[in-house]
Amino acid sequence: MRVAVFGAGGRMGLEVCRAVVSADDMKLAAAIDPGCAGQGLADLGVETDLKVVGDPALLLDAGIQAAVDFTQLDAARQNLEWLASNEVHAVVGTTGFTDSDIEAFRTSFAASNCVIAPNFAIGAVLMMRFAEIAAPFFETAEIIEFHHENKLDAPSGTALMTADRMAEASSDWLDDPTTNEILAGARGGLGPSGIRVHSVRLRGAVANQEVILGTAGQTLTIRHDSVDRSIYMPGVLLALRAVANRPGLTLGLDELLNL
To answer: Rounded to two decimals, what is the model's pTM?
Structure first.
């Protein structure tokens, strides 16, 4: 499979480039990042003689079959529009898409396919599934997500998806007893079904999340920790290998893992 990487000069993009180069059944055929166009990927720590380009139109001559996007929201919208128009499969780790974005992608990806996942860490996908299974057996729940100091959106896409799935699994949650919030926002953001979501931004963190569920006499904590960005690569490669056989738009890795 001939693969392109959007956002190739970023930390996640470089990890994806390394993973594709190391995969026996893939070839890194193009790297796109306007911020470092003209630089050799070898100078950025990837063992390839490719240079980064700034214009996706250059991909047409590279015979690209699939592309990975780890960029920012506005850039990702444009990249996905281009990929759909040019019948290239897409695997997307960028977060923050709106419901209208998702509906637009459902329409535009007709001749090629798209997998969008808020988290490619297989452990994180399992964490969300475990929280969904546990939800009907508890009366209260809160989510705490930790990310590095450069993450722009809060809460994370993973936290939002976790809350959505827990709310779909159970609507029977106790009301928040707080009547006096001394510091505004101290109780976090109000998610679906009243599930509170708290965002922590810390230098030194990568991506961590806790789901804490409680009922009479007991609590259950489900936690996933990421300590290195390489944790996401098995999920990215899984999606690349599967995307051609998943018509239209697929959200999350659950279907790919048969969860």
So the answer is: 0.82
140-147 and 207-215 strand pairing: antiparallel
pLDDT digits (tens, 9 = 90+) for 85-127: 999 999 999 988 999 999 999 999 999 999 999 889 999 999 9
51 is catalytic: no
Q: Does residue 247 sit in helix, strand or coil?
A: coil
Task: Kindly state the tokens that stand for 186.
Answer: 């101290």
| Active site annotation includes 147 | yes
Across 2-154, the runs of DSSP E, i.e. the strands, are: 2-6, 27-32, 66-69, 89-92, 114-116, 140-147
Query: Token match 């690209």: residue?
Result: 64
Category of 119 on φ-ψ map: left (φ > 0), alpha (ψ -120 to 50) or beta: beta
Strand partners, 32: 6, 53
Cα–Cα dist 148/134, whole Å: 28
Choosing from 147, 148, 198, 224, the catalytic residue is: 147
Rg (CA), the chain: 19
Q: Which of 91, 73, 75 is nearest to 243 (CA)?
A: 91
**Catalytic residue selected from 27, 51, 148, 151:** 151
Alpha carbon distance 221, 187 (integer Å): 18
Predicted confidence (pLDDT) per residue in 25-75, tens digit: 999 999 999 999 999 999 999 999 999 999 888 777 888 999 999 999 999
Closest CA to 10 of 24, 39, 21, 2: 39
